[in-house]
């Protein structure tokens, strides 16, 4: 009997020690979620310290379902509207620079349901379930989208690979008053990221998928040197421009295990920032962009 009692006490002490050493979650706002599974997303947010999430369509959702989810979770989901060319319904419009695309987006934004535009994959390398897109970032359609963002006072999230850097820079210079969130930062190397943020005050570098320990498409997409620690040069850069970075998970709800990795990677990244920078990158910058009350 005594041995059982001692064993129980030891087990309780081990559990208590494990809980005490487990780091607490840092509250953050997720700037990049493809909302395919509403229930899974809510559970992940609760488990990993996510206060709110910017949500837009994925493989199993669309603009209407995203808006409906946001209505069910008004304090958690921040919906964005998209007319991105990965959808067959919109791709022909991009190929022709069809003004009907802009009319559709304008109508959605006029409802007041959507607080931003995106993700707009104007140039996107191919990946499973996502056809390659290679449209001009400074073409008529994306210029029209930024004009609508100016009209409705909302930011635009753009996925533009750095193969189209010249045209993307021309677009940013043409709309200096429109905040543009650069999805995954275009997976740019450090010196290109530095140059782009120096040249374009309206550009915000979003870090989703760049904090993952391993990226399935390319090992140099992550900013981690060993799957855990951020490269010192990247940390120094982020600390030098703390008001220009956002965090995201790029959640897509394919499996609970893969999604947990994405959320844990953001927590790991945030713990490596100084407190003042962490507050801005985790919450402050996206709240300011979206005009959210603190």
Walk me through this protein's architecture.
The protein is α/β, with parallel strands linked by helices and about 290 residues long. The chain has eleven helices and nine strands. The protein has helices at about 1-20, 40-50, 65-70, 90-95, 100-110, 140-150, 165-175, 190-200, 230-240, 255-270, 275-290, and strands at about 30-35, 50-55, 75-80, 115-125, 135, 155-160, 180, 205, 245. Strands 1, 2, 3, 4, 5, 6, 7, 8 and 9 form a nine-stranded mixed β-sheet that branches. A hairpin with an 8-residue loop joins strand 4 (about 115-125) and strand 5.
What are the SSEs and their pairings?
Elements: H1 2-21, E1 28-34, H2 38-48, E2 50-56, H3 63-72, E3 77-81, H4 88-96, H5 99-110, E4 116-124, E5 133-134, H6 140-152, E6 156-160, H7 165-174, E7 180-182, H8 190-199, E8 203-206, H9 232-240, E9 245-246, H10 256-270, H11 275-290
Parallel strand pairs: 1-2, 2-3, 3-4, 4-6, 6-7, 7-8, 8-9
Antiparallel strand pairs: 4-5
Helix pairs in contact: 2-10, 5-6
Protein traits:
single chain; 294 residues; 9-stranded mixed sheet; 9 strands; 15% strand; globular; disordered N terminus
Low-confidence stretches: 1-20
Computed over alpha carbons, the radius of gyration is 20 Å
Helix/sheet category: alpha/beta
How much helix, percentage-wise, in residues? 40-55%
Strand content: 5-15%
Distance between the termini: 55 Å
- SSE succession: HEHEHEHHEEHEHEHEHEHH
Coarse shape = globular
Summarize the main sheet. Answer: 9 strands, mixed
In total, how many beta strands? 9
- By DSSP (H or I, 4+ residues per run), the number of helices equals 11
Please, what is the average pLDDT? 92
